[in-house]
Design goal:
5 strands
């Protein structure tokens, strides 16, 4: 029904500062977990959503006209190429998928190193990103 896109423009020096500040406060620890680690840990771990804007993310709703293209990108795929992460992933983009105003899925994306952390999917997400899907998704989100 709805897709919210949260994005941040955290710089490499600010990413390095996350490592130093992670134990300063609960908010710093949460920021580290969301941007560099595995928060949320599952589809029921949604407390982070209430703090994304405090963490420097901006929110915008995705136009429903883009849903079909996004659905194709997030569809289950057979492996074509094996994608290896090329960097330390920095999740600057987060998609929140909702049905009847309830969160049914989350996807954290690092476009730089082609990495993702997807929760709530019913299919296999291991092959996400095949056939240029990272580039297609980035183009859809940045338009």
């Amino acid at each position: 029904d709805d897709i919210d896109h949260y994005a941040t423009h955290i710089t490499p020096p600010a990413v390095n500062e996350l490592y130093d500040k992670q134990s300063n406060s609960a908010l710093d620890s949460l920021k580290m977990g969301v941007i560099l680690r595995d928060i949320p840990k599952g589809i029921d771990d949604l407390g982070f959503l209430d703090h994304l804007e405090q963490l420097g993310f901006t929110k915008r709703a995705i136009d429903k006209a883009k849903f079909e293209a996004i659905d194709n990108i997030f569809s289950e795929k057979n492996p074509v190429d094996y994608l290896l992460s090329k960097c330390i992933h920095v999740y600057r983009d987060i998609l929140i998928f909702k049905k009847d105003n309830k969160v049914v899925g989350t996807a954290k994306i690092c476009f730089e190193c082609k990495d993702h952390l997807i929760n709530g999917a019913t299919g296999n997400t291991d092959n996400f990103g095949q056939n240029g899907d990272y580039e297609k998704l980035e183009k859809l989100l940045r338009k």
